[in-house]
């Protein structure tokens, strides 16, 4: 896929701000642009994982029920569903660089709003703040994923996405550490303690937004691939539709798994750990996901993305069997190993679903981002199953999710021979 400056953009990506000489050559190389976006993905991961600190903080501060406290995650996951398609159109009109800078500015605004939310000690204001932050994160994701995908040959797009999502996983590891550093148990009654990490992150996002406005980046132009599968309406492209369904089930499985680790490991038949001990093993799960994504950068350069995805999905199916049995160390380590098998799934599915869409890539990306609503819905379903049949049996739903991923890896990613008709 060729890299070129989009001269038809409403904003000229060549022009530096303020009429100063163009000092942006260092950022016009695709590898440097990829590293910059990897840093932005890391920052995005930090913001997303801060919810794991904000949720229990607000639950104790406002004496919320579990259902009420869950509104924090609901607000964060519902935003991409509402904004994905408008964000795709927005990005298409003004270009990746300006859309990314705007998205970073929205996140910075949300970080600043933590100040008045804390001063007013209002749960509703906190939720509005989370919604603003998640809106910026959603806008960033809609533009950043296809941008990274287009920074080189189409065949290695999944490898580049693995790199940036690996950086995102590093951010999800660092976020809780950052939040815990500022939010102490002996200060949970003070709403102002939560604002500091958000102020710091918001300032960093604002700095990166200004950097993007000052320097230009390579603008990928989605020329139609000679093997493009789309001959009609992009939304009728079979890999895209299957990719949407697959991301829905994958994200649902990932969020449900990570949210149930502590309770699962507390069970006497499995490990009988205390809450604090089980909490440590959550980092093992996320560490496996982070490691797998960086290894995926290597593996997807040597094997086809669909092959790597299929192997990971099959290994996930095998690993979840002892989890359903729910006895001893095999159940414990089977559950924790799912982080490793989850690692490459999102970037691989995303890259395969967009393959061959050419000029439709931006809007199709917005469509795919909407599928992360699975992370809001499927954990609720699995929780209901756990209430009725027990926690181990609830992982039958995870089996269903993996079967969907397997079907996409071995069949659903292939466009029909005649193309999509509109």
Percent helix: over 70%
List SSEs in N-to-C order. HHHHHHHHHHHHHHHH
Which homologous superfamily in CATH is the superfamily of the largest domain?
A: MFS general substrate transporter like domains
Task: Provide the domain count.
Answer: 2
Work out the helix count.
16
Report the mean per-residue pLDDT as an integer. 79
| Rg, alpha carbons | 21 Å
Short description:
The chain has helices spanning 30-49, 51-61, 66-69, 71-94, 96-120, 123-149, 157-182, 195-214, 238-266, 275-302, 305-325, 328-342, 345-354, 361-369, 374-389, 396-412.
Give your account of this protein's structure.
This protein has 422 residues and is an all-alpha fold. The protein is 72% helix and 0% strand. The chain has 2 domains: 26-214, MFS general substrate transporter like domains (Growth Hormone, Chain: A, Up-down Bundle); 234-412, Growth Hormone, Chain: A, CATH 1.20.1250.20. It contains 16 helices and no strands. The longest helix has 29 residues, at 238-266. The model is unreliable at 1-26 and 223-230 (pLDDT under 50).
From the structure above, extract its key features.
single chain, 422 residues, mainly alpha, Growth Hormone, Chain: A, 2 domains
List the helices and strands and how they pair.
Elements: H1 30-49, H2 51-61, H3 66-69, H4 71-94, H5 96-120, H6 123-149, H7 157-182, H8 195-214, H9 238-266, H10 275-302, H11 305-325, H12 328-342, H13 345-354, H14 361-369, H15 374-389, H16 396-412
Helix pairs in contact: 1-6, 1-7, 1-8, 4-5, 4-6, 4-14, 5-6, 5-8, 6-14, 7-10, 7-13, 9-10, 9-12, 9-13, 9-14, 9-15, 9-16, 10-12, 11-12, 11-13, 11-16
């Amino acid at each position: 896929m060729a890299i070129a400056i989009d001269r038809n953009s409403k904003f000229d990506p060549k022009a530096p701000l303020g009429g100063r000489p163009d000092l942006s050559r260092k950022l016009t190389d695709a590898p440097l642009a990829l590293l910059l976006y990897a840093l932005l993905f890391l920052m995005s991961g930090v913001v997303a994982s801060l919810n794991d600190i904000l949720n229990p903080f607000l639950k104790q501060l406002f004496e919320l029920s579990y259902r009420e406290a869950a509104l924090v995650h609901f607000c964060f996951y519902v935003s991409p569903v509402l904004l994905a398609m408008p964000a795709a159109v927005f990005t298409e009109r003004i270009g990746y660089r300006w859309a990314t800078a705007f998205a970073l500015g929205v996140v910075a605004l949300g970080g600043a709003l933590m100040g008045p939310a804390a001063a007013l000690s209002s749960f509703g204001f906190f939720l509005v703040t989370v919604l603003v932050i998640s809106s910026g994160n959603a806008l960033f994701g809609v533009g950043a994923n296809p941008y990274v995908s287009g920074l080189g040959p189409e065949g290695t797009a999944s490898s580049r996405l693995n790199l940036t999502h690996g950086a995102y996983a590093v951010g999800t590891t660092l976020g809780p550490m950052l939040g815990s550093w500022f939010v102490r148990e002996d200060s949970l009654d003070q709403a102002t303690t939560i604002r500091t990490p958000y102020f710091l992150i918001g300032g960093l996002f604002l700095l990166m937004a200004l950097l993007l406005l000052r320097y230009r980046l390579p603008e990928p132009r989605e020329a139609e691939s000679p093997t493009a599968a789309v001959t009609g309406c992009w939304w009728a492209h079979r890999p895209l539709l299957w990719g949407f369904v697959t991301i829905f089930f994958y994200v649902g499985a990932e969020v449900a798994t990570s949210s149930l680790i502590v309770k699962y490991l507390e069970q006497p038949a499995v490990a009988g750990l205390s809450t604090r001990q089980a909490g440590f093993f959550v980092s093992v799960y996320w560490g496996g996901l982070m490691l797998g994504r960086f290894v995926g950068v290597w593996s997807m350069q040597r094997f086809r993305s669909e092959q790597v995805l299929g192997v990971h999905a099959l290994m996930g199916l095998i690993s979840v069997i002892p989890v359903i049995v729910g006895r001893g160390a095999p159940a414990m380590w089977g559950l924790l190993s799912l982080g490793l098998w989850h690692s490459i799934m999102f970037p691989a599915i995303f890259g395969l679903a967009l393959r061959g869409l050419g000029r439709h890539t931006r809007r199709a990306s917005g469509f795919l981002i909407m599928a992360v609503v699975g992370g809001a819905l499927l954990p609720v379903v699995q929780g209901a199953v756990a209430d009725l049949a027990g926690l181990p049996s609830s992982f039958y739903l995870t089996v269903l999710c993996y079967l969907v991923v397997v079907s996409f890896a071995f069949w659903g990613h292939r466009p029909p021979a005649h193309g999509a008709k509109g």
